[in-house]
Amino acid sequence: xxxxxxxxxxxxxxxxxxxxxxxxxxxxxxxxxxxxxxxxxxxxxxxxxxxxxxxxxxxxxxxxxxxxxxxxxxxxxxxxxxxxxxxxxxxxxxxxxxxxxxxxxxxxxxxxxxxxxxxxxxxxxxxxxxxxxxxxxxxxxxxxxxxxxxxxxxxxxxxxxxxxxxxxxxxxxxxxxxxxxxxxxxxxxxxxxxxxxxxxxxxxxxxxxxxxxxxxxxxxxxxxxxxxxxxxxxxxxxxxxxxxxxxxxxxxxxxxxxxxxxxxxxxxxxxxxxxxxxxxxxxxxxxxxxxxxxxxxxxxxxxxxxxxxxxxxxxxxxxxxxxxxxxxxxxxxxxxxxxxxxxxxxxxxxxxxxxxxxxxxxxxxxxxxxxxxxxxxxxxxxxxxxxxxxxxxxxxxxxxxxxxxxxxxxxxxxxxxxxxxxxxxxxxxxxxxxxxxxxxxxxxxxxxxxxxx
Length: 453
Known about the structure:
The protein has 453 residues and is of the alpha/beta class. It is built from 21 helices and 8 strands. It is globular, with a radius of gyration of 25 Å.
């Protein structure tokens, strides 16, 4: 099945769920451009249609695509010039061989192993290590060296799109390679919950069958475990599964978008068990790591994209790894369409809608917001007081002004009561270090930053 056949199948399903007018307006001139690591790219005729599909029909498109091709992980929308439906046929005959577009999804080479759900492309060799993830990487290496004995469970958390799934699946693939006799299984928490519900509904001893299914492995990897907090009965089952693995010395690996202490609805007994091993986070990559990720990606694609293009993407897209790769994919697609790499100006125009606008707020607004958050008097931030609770809040104000709003050290000092710039530098470094060692500070900063979005 090629992309055209797959998308036509999806369109039939979509047409049955939306009005005739909506289908004709928004879906008629769409196509499925390509797939990359589970991300499906839908071609649309213009930005307006792109925004509309993304905002109004994304859930429907995602559901239909997943039903048609179970390995769909994400959907992105891409403006395709000309007639999207004939677009792929045109470019395949006109472009240089180096930029030929693959018109088929890898359906006969799905990458995912049916026995363990692991994607063999997710290995340590293809994982880019930088300051933002080096501790998590080191923990996975230790877990692979001694499965079930060191860092068990291994709990990796961080925001979406930072490479957690790649890293935890790399653990599974490495264990398989190093210990061929061991059986490994990867599953998302959502699928685990669905399996449990189905087992309960089917009755006739299905509960025992469910237990047998998940307890027969030597290592289990559960992705997006934060979802378990919403399901009381599934949490009970996970609790017993955890105990079974831990007592047998079998490796357990979890990923989550938040620290166990902040998973809503999570029982204390689960929190304490997660804390028995190693809990480690992955943060957003800094510029050097973003550039390294891009270079690794273009190397995998066999392209020689100019350094100035890669450096611009790395500096302009300061979000997660998924956003970074999405922007690179847009550049690569344009290269394939035009038969040449885009200029720097063309790259900037292409990515202008993907770049998040810098946050803007006055120093006074930042001070007021953070003072209100900590329930302290706004005026006290400017005073020359050494009260511990005020000093902490003032240091956080300095840190946010510098890191999030790029205010210069001297100006921060001047605005906050005439402090010397060295005092501001010291305060910023202190908060940065405290974030690594104090989970409460890190969580508070996340909440404060959310107030400025």
